[in-house]
Design brief:
Layout lengths: L4 H8 L3 H9 L6 H11 L3 H6 L7 H21 L5
Length: 83
């Protein structure tokens, strides 16, 4: 993704020091890392663990976007900004 460790750690909400330990092989990645990658970056966990499939869950991303659009419309209607 071309991110520094600091930026990557911000995106997945895991301390930079923990990520450095993963990179050095000093620590085994936890389920928390997997979940943060999936939740915050839409990483396909099957790909992450096995290398099979696509890196990102495209369908999930599309659905998340659609849900977000619906939620925004709902709030705008409640505020009287749109009908």
């Amino acid at each position: 993704m071309g991110l520094s460790v600091a930026k990557f750690s911000e995106k997945i909400n895991i301390p930079a020091a923990t990520i450095v330990c993963y990179e050095r092989g000093e620590r085994t990645p936890s389920a928390t890392l997997f979940m943060q990658l999936h939740k915050n970056l839409n990483v396909n966990l099957n790909w992450f663990v096995s290398g099979l499939g696509k890196m990102y869950n495209e369908d999930s991303f599309r659905q998340d976007r659609e849900n977000l659009v619906l939620e925004i419309k709902k709030v705008l209607k409640e505020e009287g900004i749109i009908k």
